[in-house]
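Support request, please re-run this one:
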Amino acid sequence: MPAAGDTARVRVDGLRVVYPGPSPVTALAGVDVVLAAGRCLGVLGESGSGKSTLGRALLGLLPGAQVSGSIRVNGVPMSRESDWDRVRWRDISIALPSGTALNPVVGIGEQIAEPIRVHLKAGAKAAAERASAILEQVGLGAWAAERYPHELSTGQRRLAMIAMALSCDSAVMVLDEPTAGLDPATRRDVLSLLARLRDGGRSLLVLTHDVAAARLLADDIAVLYRGWIAEHGPAASVLDDPRSPYAFGLLNANSTLGSVKDLRGIRGTAPDPGELLPGCPFATRCTQVIDICTRELPPEVAPADEHGPRRVACHRSGLVDVLQMRGIGKSYVLRHGLRRVRVPAVVDVDLTVREGEVVGLVGRNGAGKSTFAQIAAHLAEPDTGTVWLQGNETRSLSAADRKQLKTRVQMLFPDPVEAVSARLTVNDIVREPLDVQGTGESNWRDAEVLRLLTQVGLPGHAMLNRHAHEVSTGQLQRIALARALALAPKLLVADEPVECLDPSERAKVLQLLKSIQVERGLAMLLISHDLSVVLRIADRVAVMDAGRIVEFAPSSQLLHRPAHPTTRALLEASGADPASWPPLPGGVHQAPASSITSDLIPELYSREVST
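Re-run finished. Output below.
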């Protein structure tokens, strides 16, 4: 039983595991874990992050490794092998990820029955009967008791490992990749079984790459990177809105049937596991790294503007806000007959774009998207509201500081022919921002132009002396992108960037945009009226209608559970099937796809302008 005052079935404090060798590998670096009755903790992370080491450490199955820290099972510290012998299988069990853990010369039934006889002191007949019943319970069938491991498929061997973990009815189960290699139907049945066990009071530690399985089972999530917990908290918070740079990259690389987004892995590769670097373990791959990140291990803190139980290990309190816009309003004075009237284009809009995030902004023609984009790119001033770029309120800065800050945001326009001067060569077009800002020496600027053209997929030397009319529209848009990247911005505002391109070139430019965005860690505001384009790239999507944001949601949620008539009209016009959508609340009607916001402009006139 747990010690007085401690309700946790498993409590781990400061667990450190080092595998000795010529270059010792630190597999876990001070990990804390608490597992309570009837709770499931899901642990996610790339291969090599330390998940399996954590699972084995909880059962004392790390011979030869240097283990330090505290592990308590039912409140009792585990310090000697005899301590583990008392709790292993009876109180805590493990389903290992590979069928090679099974004895190849012993039948499956006998291997499941053995811990029942040894630890529960059951007779041979009772143990065999229980083994057969468990095989039925996991969906494998009693017939498997007579089979040897080599006579089963990979997925069937994995089910046999889960059955063995269930053999002694332990209160705590460690499940290492329980769904890997299973067909969809069997996977569903196994997850249902594990959910029933959790609901019946068992404590589960699920170590997995399967984000969907973690979503179904886990009450809490810990995201592990190189033996260090980058983020932990309630499952819904971490999975739906990851706030640490590593968790954000990992979960955005996950594929689901509920998303059409093109996938990109986390940039870079993990350092040599035998090399223990100072500072944050993720610093070499992080795009928001600052000096302290390379010197000191980050503390666990609540994400910025959040006060719940979630914690991120980050010197900057998780993903930083690159762009914040609050209460943005903008109107224009137009002639309406003989009158001059003020027409609102943007009305009280709030929007945040975080480091490395792509936010899509969609709407019909005339919805206010381009006006909003110009305000975000600091090409127009709002009438009302405030804009912060990298934490700086731009209107409060001096002219010199504003000029410098504006290098951190660049805009990609819809028509590249209009966006560049026909009199300039490609070299001049790309080099101009560097010349204006006085960045580097002349020779460096020449080399940088070639590097940028190569990065956007163009033959640099062959392009330098051409003019805009001597290249295709697709090539010109790539040149405009190279120009936008010249000053290494942190925010790219892309206004209909593929509108003028053919389908093939459109696909190439979208893939290029996403690749560069991931590699540089760019925050991007992607504006379009075409949801099929935005959903390919965006992490979150805002829908604008009549100058207002009417819906803002993750891209997969917007695709499958649109909540506003405008969103549904745009999706249906892009080819989505509305049959699977949930009904709108009572009294809200579907907007016809043919309706356009400009029809509503007379209703939006706020007042006549006095002459």
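The chain has three domains: 1-89+171-267, 92-169, 322-580+587-597. The longest strand covers residues 321-336.
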